[in-house]
Amino acid sequence: MSPGLFSVHFSFWVDGIPIREFKNLESAGIPFPKRQPMRIYSSLWNADDWATRGGIVKTDWSQAPFMASYRRFCADACILYSGTSSCSWDSPPWISQVLDSTDQKKMKWVEDNYMVYNYCTDSERFPHGLPTECFP
What we know:
Largest sheet: 2 strands, antiparallel
Radius of gyration: 18 Å
Strand content: 5-15%
Number of strands: 4
Number of helices: 1
Helix content: 10-25%
Shape: globular
Mean pLDDT: 79
Low-confidence stretches: 1-6
Structural class: alpha+beta
Distance between the termini: 27 Å
């Protein structure tokens, strides 16, 4: 894998809308996963207090079991084979894609309308200070 392959950022998109961006803030001492394979993991949260905005969002346990599924899932990614990446720096084009102002507004809309919890604002969970990556 090229050392600079993921040196800028990576982002997650759903139906053409960016929902999360991870910027490389290594210069601020924040580790960034640029030299190892990564995987995507998703789960249903378990209604812990931190995930329910302190109990404001109630869980209707009568609706259990809770399930999630994906249809037509497609991941644009570089595949690692025996230590060698399937991508080079100049291909595919999404590797160097940066969110423009329109994409940033779309992501802000998603955060404002769908994000229930943001650990970067949870001073109760982090009483000794928020994680470093929350202050880019």
